[in-house]
Write a structure and sequence with these properties.
Blueprint: H1 17-25, H2 29-40, H3 52-61, H4 66-75, H5 80-92, H6 97-110, H7 118-128, E1 133-135, E2 140-142
Antiparallel strand pairs: 1-2
């Protein structure tokens, strides 16, 4: 599998929250703030995963430091729910890994990228998971059938 950085994952089972933020954030304040937001949030995509699963997805893909910030800011328009949806789509095969990593890498190195149609990716997730819908007024993904949140 292609990775953006390095050959192996950097997180270990014994890592605590502070170590996870330090290792994954690599000193980038934007990345570290995204990681903190993720850890403080609930999974709005499946309602089953913990948000730690999304951090593990980024580790598996080699997305660290400034690349976390690039993913969050440029592709997800600083919307945490969209970040979760993009990572979920990659994990489930609805978004090609190479396309995602090339997009991030292109922005970082060349200020150019292979566009990803975020709306189309989210539509695919909505089609597969009827409990995952977009509330455009609030810009949140929520469960309309069983609104426990």
């Amino acid at each position: 599998m292609k990775r953006l950085e390095g050959n192996t994952q950097i997180l270990e089972l014994r890592d605590n929250t502070v170590n996870i933020i330090k290792k994954m954030g690599k000193g980038n304040p934007g990345a570290m703030s995204v990681l903190i937001k993720l850890l403080q949030s609930k999974d709005v995509v499946t309602r089953k995963n913990t948000t730690t699963d999304y951090i593990l997805d980024m580790d598996r893909l080699g997305i660290y430091g400034e690349n976390i910030w690039i993913l969050y800011k440029d592709l997800c328009s600083e919307r945490l729910n969209v970040l979760m949806a993009i990572l979920y789509a990659q994990r489930t095969g609805n978004l090609d890994t190479t396309q995602l990593l090339t997009h991030i890498e292109g922005i970082q190195k060349y200020k150019d990228h292979t566009p990803i149609d975020v709306d189309a990716v989210i539509d695919e997730i909505c089609d597969e998971n009827p409990l995952f819908v977009v509330d455009e007024e609030e810009d949140l993904y929520r469960n309309e059938v069983n609104n426990r949140w």
